[in-house]
């Protein structure tokens, strides 16, 4: 496992992907929990078979892949279905995350997980980094990026841990309300140096 692990999280539309890519430019290994979550339900997987048995064939795209948008809409309006899905997927995702962390080659690595705190993944990391933005900016950026409606985006925000709770759990916070990329790059550079030093102490 990587010598030192930083958990990167933040609400929907906060800019986690942008921040993680800046860390990658410094040679940092990035493990993305969302990518792992997609991989466990790929076409032909046992998890996808179980999901379709439970939800029905109409949750498949014409390609035979999972209609993630449709499933997301369903589980946000049905707590019983959400619980069933979480009980199926979370153990698989956690197992694959741990395997990826064990194989990370850099001095320290980044675990990017939107639900880091909700799913208790912070226990896998040495430090928690939160990308923080206002709710107004979350909605604006997500509307620009996704096909989701504002009602759906607000439902996602409300289903996640509160902004205040994230801030309380953070060891480090990047304020990403600003659109100044140079400022963001400098914040990442400083944190990268700090994490490198921490990883050497942890050896």
Task: Give an overview in words.
With 203 residues, this protein is α/β, with parallel strands linked by helices. It has one domain: Rossmann fold (3-Layer(aba) Sandwich). Helices cover 54% and strands 11% of the residues. It has nine helices and five strands; from the N terminus they run βαβααααββαααβα. It has helices spanning 16-24, 33-39, 46-55, 68-76, 79-103, 135-145, 150-159, 163-169, 181-202; strands spanning 5-9, 29-32, 109-112, 127-132, 172-175. The longest helix is centred in the middle third of the chain and has 25 residues, at 79-103. The mean pLDDT is 92. One of its GO terms (molecular function) is dephospho-CoA kinase activity. Pathway: Cofactor biosynthesis; coenzyme A biosynthesis; CoA from (R)-pantothenate: step 5/5. One of its GO terms (biological process) is coenzyme A biosynthetic process.
Nearest-integer average pLDDT:
92
Strand order of the largest sheet: 2-3-1-4-5
Helix content: 40-55%
Order of helices and strands: EHEHHHHEEHHHEH
Q: What is the CATH level 1 assignment?
A: Alpha Beta
Backbone CA Rg: 18 Å
**Which residues form runs of ≥5 with pLDDT under 50?**
none
- Please indicate the count of domains: 1
> Between the first and last Cα atoms, what is the distance in angstroms?
12 Å
CATH topology: Rossmann fold
Give the full name of the CATH homologous superfamily.
P-loop containing nucleotide triphosphate hydrolases
Family: Belongs to the CoaE family.
Binding site for ATP: 13-18
Catalytic activity: 3'-dephospho-CoA + ATP = ADP + CoA + H(+)
Subcellular location: Cytoplasm
